[in-house]
């Protein structure tokens, strides 16, 4: 008998719903849901101006002010990746590919803040802390997939073993300063 939760999560057979999800699967579900809600909110700020956001036009002006043009197209892409990606994370569909897209998006967010002259780490000082945390969580999901409590469970695309994900991750790693 396993002595603690971590041992049970690793040693328990992964047979999907026949034996129930492991603690690791439930942890991935929690992470995907929490991250998905955050990305939906951020995408909503960019696309619709909800939750105190500036909407498509306002965010596009900011993007262009720091040298990213065409601003409207880039904001539209970023907003769709965040909003749509958040929904897909919650249901657990295409999580490895979605995670790679969100890693690219958050890398862009950090680089945009850097271009705007923000060189601080902590969010309380207007720094990159949140974006880097979202990037790290998205990267982890890209590598491990959605877990058993997902639409992806048992599908061949469920983990980052395919060229498209590796190329996306390689491109993101190349962009890092």
Q: Could you characterize what this model shows?
A:
There is one protein chain. The chain has 177 residues and is mostly helical. It has one domain. It has seven helices and no strands. It has helices at residues 5-11, 23-48, 55-65, 71-91, 95-115, 129-144, 163-175. α2 runs antiparallel to α4 (71-91), α3 crosses α4 (71-91) and α5 runs parallel beside α7 (163-175). It is elongated. The relative contact order is 0.14. Residues 1-12 have low confidence and may be disordered.
Secondary structure blueprint with pairings:
Elements: H1 5-11, H2 23-48, H3 55-65, H4 71-91, H5 95-115, H6 129-144, H7 163-175
Helix pairs in contact: 2-3, 2-4, 2-6, 3-4, 4-5, 5-6, 5-7
Quickly describe the structure:
This protein has 177 residues and is mainly alpha-helical. It has seven helices and no strands. It has one domain.
């Amino acid at each position: 008998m396993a002595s603690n939760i971590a041992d049970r999560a690793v040693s328990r057979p992964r047979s999907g719903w026949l034996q129930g999800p492991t603690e690791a699967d439930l942890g991935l579900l929690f992470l995907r849901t929490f991250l998905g809600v955050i990305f939906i909110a951020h995408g909503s700020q960019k696309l619709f101006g909800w939750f105190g956001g500036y909407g498509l036009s306002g965010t596009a002006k900011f993007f262009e002010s720091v040298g990213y043009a065409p601003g409207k197209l880039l904001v539209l892409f970023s907003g769709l990746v965040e909003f749509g990606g958040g929904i897909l994370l919650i249901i657990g569909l295409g999580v490895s590919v979605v995670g790679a897209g969100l890693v690219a998006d958050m890398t862009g967010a950090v680089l945009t803040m850097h271009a705007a002259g923000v060189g601080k780490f902590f969010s309380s000082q207007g720094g990159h802390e949140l974006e880097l945390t979202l990037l790290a969580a998205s990267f982890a999901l890209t590598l491990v997939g959605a877990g058993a409590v997902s639409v992806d469970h048992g599908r061949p695309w469920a983990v980052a073993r395919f060229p498209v994900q590796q190329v996306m991750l390689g491109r993101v790693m190349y962009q890092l300063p």
